[in-house]
Write a structure and sequence with these properties.
UspA domain-containing protein; Rossmann-like_a/b/a_fold; two-stranded antiparallel sheet; alpha/beta; 167 residues
């Protein structure tokens, strides 16, 4: 099989789980256990959207296992921090509240980043993206600018997966 001139030696298939309610978990559990290393004739790019939630920890674990099973792969972890837009209002109190809230968000994000760095392997590529947008929009913009071959993200609900047509 050829994709833009690159021969693909092995194709990775992820089977849909028996219950639609388990769809998110299919990507995060042991359903994919490689019997041997997968081989691609191009660099296979994996991005894991990560934070320090339990479901994200499973996504990180899955991404690392997938990366280990594909010798010609790179893995990158992306942590997005959505700040509140700064207010351009003449009411000083509202602008002050936004700045204070953003300081709290940035403080929490710093703690989460430290927790992620402790959880990830040494020299892991962790990109921290900060912007005055929602986390979903920040991640969407990042993957549209830096398209991966596979995006792994933990989700405790189906809305994010449905948005990307995966569910």
């Amino acid at each position: 099989m050829t994709s833009e001139g690159a021969d693909i030696n092995t194709t990775l298939f992820l089977a849909e789980p028996a219950s639609p309610d388990l769809w998110d978990a299919a990507f995060l559990t042991n359903q994919y256990q490689p019997q041997h290393s997968l081989c691609f004739s191009f660099m296979f790019r994996i991005i894991v959207a990560a934070d320090d939630t339990p479901v994200s920890r499973k996504a990180i674990s899955y991404g690392l296992r997938l990366h280990e099973s594909i010798p010609q792969s790179s893995i990158q972890f992306v942590f997005a921090v959505g700040l509140n837009p700064t207010s351009n209002t003449s009411i000083n109190l509202l602008g002050s509240l936004d700045r204070t809230n953003n300081l709290e968000i940035e403080h929490d994000a710093h703690n989460t980043e430290n927790a992620l760095r402790q959880r990830l392997p040494d020299k892991a590529d962790l990109q921290v993206i900060t912007g005055e947008q929602s986390v979903e929009k920040l991640i969407e913009d990042y993957i549209n600018t830096n398209p991966p071959d596979i995006l792994i993200m933990g989700s405790s609900n189906r809305t994010g997966l449905e948005k990307y047509g995966i569910a």
